[in-house]
Amino acid sequence: MVKIFNISFRNRVFTASGVFGFGLKYRRISNAVGAVITKGITLKPRQGNPPPRIFETPGGLINWVGLENPGVDVFSKQIIPELKKLKTRIIANVAGFKVDEYVQIVERIGDRVDAFELNVSCPNVKEGGAAFGQDPDVVGRVVTKVRKRTKRPIIVKLTPNFCDPLNIARVCADNGADGISLINTLYGIAFDVSTGKPLIKGGLSGPAIKPFALYCVNRIRDIGVPIIGMGGIMTGKNAYEFLLAGASAVAIGSAMLRDPWAPIRIVKELKKFMRRGEKAGDGRRRLKKI
Amino acid sequence: MSSFSHKAIIQDNTWYAPDIFCLKVKLPGIEPLPGQFFQVRVSEELDPFLNRPISVARYERSVLHLIVRVVGRGTTLLSRKKPGEEIVLLGPFGNGIQPARIKSVIIAGGIGVAPLLHVAQHLRTSKVPFMFLYGARHKRDLILTSEIRHMSDQCAIVAEEGYKKHRTVLQELSARSFDGFGRAYACGPRNMLVALQRIRLPMPVYAFCEDFLGCGCGLCLGCAIRYKGEYKRICEDGPVFELSEIDFNG
After folding, report:
1. Residue of B185, B79, B35, B136 whose CA lies nearest to B144
2. Which helix (H) or strand (E) holds B114?
3. Would you state the pLDDT for residue B175?
């Protein structure tokens, strides 16, 4: 067990938002990880974007799903009771298009989840989303308002797109956030050269973005609140690199598209790396304190 | 490894056409239905990153037949796999269908023939008569023609080039009557399915759809198709849908 945001988790490996639905389909995976971070939940149900929604790129993919989800009411009434049966922590990913929507969604969910991840960084929606997350004032307002309505830990998921996550992370920590998740996907676009038109414009993820994700985590490591690091983690070794960069936990995203069982493997592999790190007794020892 | 994650040994990899090959993999203990598919790991390296969705063309004596057309780097790498090599497959995924015991017509365009061979195999086994209409762009793209002729009660195989009759599978279809037929199964390029939808055959037509898939098992919401007015996941809600209810302009 590890304690992060003042709550205990089975381990430091979480499933990232968007690649694992609500964690109800493959419960063995949900019950093996430290936490399931749910698919982004919006105030109203959303159909998502028209196809194509996925485009493979070297070492990753661009997605343009567009926050398809059943909305907070269905989540509260139908999904939370099912989530309660899982033996894992549930972190609800909350996506608003206006500041007040975050507050409303968090209020409707109440304290029936273990923590909230405020998604101020989705690249695939017209309003809100990443444009929100690039503006320290707006993010500050979201965090301040949500903070007043919940005692549950608030984690803010940041974008690294066209802004310095360090500035935004500072604002989050100053306004009462308990943690930071990063990175959300990078902007990406692919063209069809035969028509000259874009094939897809969305969020780039996968191992191709890992060095940049590690850089971002490392950049905000002294922010003073725990960090959930994510971006292209495929192995326990990769997860360990994020811990070295300054994260307290990691989330597995795109790897699950290739292998839905990746989180279970990564939990095992990471354990070995942490044991080795403890024995090495160098700078890695500080990991024990996290 | 879980119930749907398999490490299997390749038994055979044979070219059926200049760019179409059949990968045979020993995989006991599964009973895939027509329409179901596997997510095949192309490489243990991280590029290409995603698995490739390949439909089941046949399952016989514990051997899975996957018929694949080379379209890019992923399928090129698959074509180079050698017998004896190990391969990772996830599946079977998707809602397959148990073909109804009604006289049926199969409409295959190009590599769309692959999952329909599995339909034909099922119809044959349950002694249901069927007509097999199969077309490709060029004669050289047609595969397993004598086998198809042999297994079907009625059959037409056409190509737009290089063949005695220069026609498309839909031209062939328009020239025929379907008295007594009660079901159709279709798979082929998007244009073929769109045109087939306009023809309005006097029977339910089940279309086998394809797309770029992310996870293949309903988690990522990456494969959307507009069906009966809302987005459905091709991988989990399909890949077989009733053709008349699909909105291809999605």
Report:
1. B136
2. helix B113-125
3. 84
- Taking 3-state DSSP, the helix, strand and coil percentages for chain A, each rounded to the nearest 5, stand at 40, 25, 40
- Contact predicate A93/A117, CB 8 Å: yes
* HEC sequence for A214-248: HHHHHHCCCCCCCEEEECCCCCHHHHHHHHHHCCC
DSSP output for A87-150: SSEEEEEE--SSHHHHHHHHHHHTTSSSEEEEE---TTSSSSHHHHHT-HHHHHHHHHHHHHH-
Catalytic positions of A are 122
CA-only gyration radius of chain B, Å? 17
Helix pair angle (A99-109, A136-149), 10° resolution: 30
Find the helix packing angle between A136-149 and A165-174, rounded to 10°.
Answer: 30
Q: Is B48 on the interface with A (CB under 8 A)?
A: yes
Q: A158-195: per-residue pLDDT in tens?
A: 989 989 999 999 999 999 999 999 999 999 999 999 99
Q: Within 13 Å and on the Cβ side, how many CA atoms surround A187?
A: 9
Ranges in chain B, pLDDT < 50: 1
Neighbour tally for B192: CB within 10 Å: 21
Which chain A residues are closer than 8 Å to B223 by Cβ? 51, 53-54
Measure CA B58 to chain center. Answer: 10
DSSP letters, B22-86, are: EEEEE-TT--PPTT-EEEE---SSSSS-S-EEEEEEEEETTEEEEEEE--SHHHHHHHT--TT-E
pLDDT at A281: 63
Residue A289: its pLDDT value, please? Answer: 47
Give the torsion through C-alpha atoms of B193, B199, B204, B207, to 10 deg.
0
DSSP track, B35-48 = T-EEEE---SSSSS
Of B218, B223, B230, the CB nearest to A54: B223
In the block, residue with structure tokens 């890695």 = A284
- Return phi, psi of residue B188, to 5°: 175, -170
For B87, how many CA atoms within 13 A lie in the half-sphere containing its CB? 31
Distance from CA of B223 to the nearest CA of A (A): 6
Per-residue pLDDT at A257: 96
Six-digit token pair at B53? 């969705």
Contact in structure between A90 and A36 (CB atoms under 8 Å): yes
Report the C-alpha gap between B7 and B2 in whole angstroms.
10
Q: What is the pTM of this model?
A: 0.92
Locate the chain A residue with the closest alpha carbon to B224: A51
pLDDT at res. B200:
87
Cβ neighbours, 10 Å, residue A235: 16
CB contact under 8 A, A51 and B223: yes
Q: Residue B17 is encoded by which pair of tokens?
A: 């056409």
Smallest Cα–Cα separation from A38: which of A112, A98, A100?
A112
Tokens of A278: 């403890």
Q: Higher-confidence residue: A135 or B240? A: B240
CB contact under 8 Å between A68 and B221, yes or no, is yes
